[in-house]
Task: structure prediction
Amino acid sequence: MTQPVQGEKPKLNRPSQPFRVSSSSSEPSTSPIIRVDARHDRTTDRYVILWQDIRRAFKNAQCIMQDEVVVPFMTDADFKELTPPRILYRRAVVLDVVLEDTAHGPTPKQGDPVLRGTNIQQDRKANNKNKGHLSTDVKADLQSTLRSYNQLFRSFCNTMMSDDLGQAKKTMETMQRDLITVQTEILKVHPPQDLIIKAQIHILEHQQSLLERMSAVQGLLQTVVDQTSELMEERPPNVATVKSKVMALDLVKITKTVLQFLDHKDLVKCMRVNKAWHELTAPMVWGKIDIWDEPRYNPSVEALQRRRLLVNSLGMSQSDLEYCAIDFPNLRHLDVIFSMKKVEQIIDFIQRHTSLTKLELHYSYSDEEFEFYAPQLWRVVANLPGLKSLHLHGFGVRNISVSLPTLHELHIKYHSRNSSSDTIVDQLRFMSRCPALHVLEWRNYNYKRQIGDATGKDFMQMVDVGTWPELTALTVHCDALILWDSEIETILSSMPRVVVFDVRGSVFGILSFVQLQYHFATLEELHLDPSCTLTKHRLSEIVSSCPRLLESCKKDLAKMAADGRS
Result:
């Protein structure tokens, strides 16, 4: 290998741009190819070819073309040509150099704002022999108009980047008038040039369509700003800072809103886009984790250990004991299916997570099998300081002595497959130990009534004496406990306000309807048994008089009213 001479600088490995003289005919050019070294532009960090280097190789160079299109000089953000003039280096492309040719007239200047970037070279060549000549006065007027158009175009670009869409629209209208003036004058002596003006008018039409769509979006955003400002003004006066105006485009908030409609698979893809998207989507991917019987669908113990701070909702079935050993500091919701092999581990898991606010317990074994662990479990549940919602699925509550004074929601569900030996008395006794309930859901299907069981009257009396003074949502589906019309009337009169009321399977009549009228303003959900004795007129009155009633409930009531009632 040839060694460089000591003291001599090594040659820079930079590219060179091939050029050739443009042919005046449609046949490919046969002129020799001349290469001009490219220079590295530190400002743009790209390779460029200086115009002065091209003029040294081609003395009469007028402009540079590629595939019959004039190559523009590089410009800054304000569309001003960079100094010294330069063009962008194009890899693996031979550029044509157009020389001054008096026989075919001067080639259009590269800086002409009308001709730059338009595919009209072939039309110009085909019509060069037939073109006319403009008078000196007309030519001067047209040049002045085109210079004005160039300035307007820059102004239009600037206003489009701002929020002043009204000014952008006015500027565009002025540009259209100037182009029509140029078109009218040129058509008198130079018909081929009409192609140029038509091209520019076509561009302006697209810009105008875009501008109209942007104006519509701006109007929508302004509505959002106005409504948000009104809400901000309605905030309590003790708030430290009340902003009178908010940003119309909160990109983070908009992104979060859009991400809520994606499934888990798409969220995982979004998490891999970049760091910012990872921070937005990681809590959505790892916020709710379900660990069920199929190991291939479960996250690994190591991955869950790394992401444990993001988990706030966890569902566990017949899972490995290794998952129970992980601590989740921000866990709020736990949905767990008990297994006799892992009862102690699950109880210990619940005891460690004092941050729980919602607990769902599933059980399918007999009470005798679980009787040994029940007292320990309920002591742990009672000691959860922030527990607000408790869901029991087939979970026995017999002989429970603990109280849950801060519980706001209680959902008890039994089905025929559940083997719990609880009686209605046992269940009512447990409910009475939750005095702060706002929501009570009690579903007991296919229940076999036992001697000494409570009746609907017993439940009504518990509500009437104020066992749950803050109860606003009540759902009672119990095959062995039917509420009669007078009992439902008493329950409705004892509740401070009614938001949800579901007594399917019970008798809802005129007495209940009269008492329900006092709660029309707050009622959001109402579910009645299809065999209720209300007339068509009463059902229609409920639909029309409850402004907050869900549409699905209105449809059900309207359907009942249409079923041949008097």
Summary: Residues 14-111 form one domain. The longest strand covers residues 16-21. Residues 1-11, 102-132, 236-250 have pLDDT under 50 and may be disordered. The first helix runs from residue 51 to 57.
